[in-house]
Amino acid sequence: MDWTATGTMLSGYGTLIGAVAVVYGATQGFKQWREQKLAERRMQLAEQILALAYKMREIMKSIRSGGSFRSEHDAAEKILRDSDTVYDGMDEGEKSRLIQAQVTLTRVQNQAERWDQLLDILPVTKAVFDDEIEKALSCFWLQRAAVVAAVRSYGAIKDTGPARSEEEAKRRDETLRNLERTFWDCSVPPEVDEVEEAINAGIATLDEELLPIIRKGHGRSRSRKKEGIK
Question: CA geometry: angle at 7 spanning 3 and 8, to 5°?
């Protein structure tokens, strides 16, 4: 037997095995690095989503607040006077409520940058997480739409002029009060503020799903009992 040839052959096998080991190690190392980066990305996105959600909740509260600054009042009144409405023919009570409705609409419009931020992060949320989290975050956009629709419907009803009968006036007042409960936070217990309730439900889902990811990323953990949102 040619031991020299055999030794060369074994050396070749050893080199090959070593190369395979290096490639395997590099592959595993890349896999671990990639998983770590994905975990970091998930944590960062979770933080962004939760921070935005809490900001949006406060923004919606301020939008739906029944009070207003004098500058908001004056700007809203100018818009109504300049528009083609029956504003000038209304009594002072009706004018006041319509002005406040316009204030609400202007507040929504003034938050355009924040609404754009919300829309930009929604597809990323759906791609990185699941539909439940994307749906929970979407609640702010849906409630924004509900508020805007309620204000516009309110203005359209007011623009029709006075009711032609007592029965019509009663139905109209009921409709107006329902619309007001959507764009103002004026629900009184046991009435339910549906806008606030929907937003709080969205926040609760985001807390439940994202806080564990954030805490794990920061080296903190806490056992949580998973509960459904009723």
Answer: 120
| Residue 184 φ/ψ region, left for φ over 0, alpha for ψ in the -120 to 50 degree band, beta for the rest | beta
- How far is Cα 151 from Cα 145, in angstroms, rounded to an integer? 10
Burial class (CB in 10 A: 0-12, 13-18, 19+), 144: buried
User: In terms of C-beta density within 10 A (0-12 exposed, 13-18 middle, 19 or more buried), how is residue 48 classed?
Assistant: middle
Q: What's this model's pTM, rounded to 2 decimal places? A: 0.77
Tokens 């923004």, residue?
A: 59
One-letter amino acid at 82 equals: D
**Spatial separation of the C-alpha atoms in residues 175 and 177, rounded to whole Å:** 5
Beta-strand (E) ranges in the chain?
A: none
3-state secondary structure of 129: coil
pLDDT one-digit tens code per residue, 18-71: 655 555 555 555 455 455 666 678 889 999 999 999 999 999 999 999 888 999
Q: Residue 170 in contact with residue 134, Cβ under 8 Å?
A: no
List b or e across 102-129, with b for residues whose CB sees 16 or more CB atoms inside 10 angstroms: bbbbbbbeebeeebeebeebbeebeeeb
Cβ atoms of 183 and 101 closer than 8 Å: yes
Q: State how far the alpha carbon of 165 is from the alpha carbons of 162, 169, 172, 198, in Å.
A: 9, 6, 10, 36
How far apart are alpha carbons 66 and 182 in whole angstroms? 12
Residue type at 148 in one-letter notation: V
Give the whole-angstrom CA distance, residue 90 versus residue 97: 11
Residues belonging to the chain: 230
